[in-house]
Amino acid sequence: EVGMNAQDLGKILHREPAEIVKKLFMLGVMTNQNQSLDKDAIELVAAEYGINAEEKVHEDMSDIDNLYNKRMEASKESKHQIKRPPVVTIMGHVDHGKTTLLDRLRHTHVTDHEAGGITQKIGAYQVRIDNHLITFLDTPGHAAFSNMRERGAEITDIVVLVVAADDGVMPQTIEAIDHAKSAKVPIIVAINKMDAPGANPQHVTEQLMKYNLIPEDYGGDTIFVNISAKTGENVDELLQMILLQADVMELKADPKQKAIGTVIEARLSRGRGPVADLLVQQGTLHTGDPIVVGNRFGRVRVMTNDRGRQVEKATPSMPVEITGLNDVPESADKIVVFDDEKTARSVGEQRAQQALQQSRENVTHVTLDNLFDTM
Ligand code: GDP
Ligand code: MG
Question: Which positions fall inside the Tr-type G domain (predicted)?
Answer without folding.
Answer: 83-252
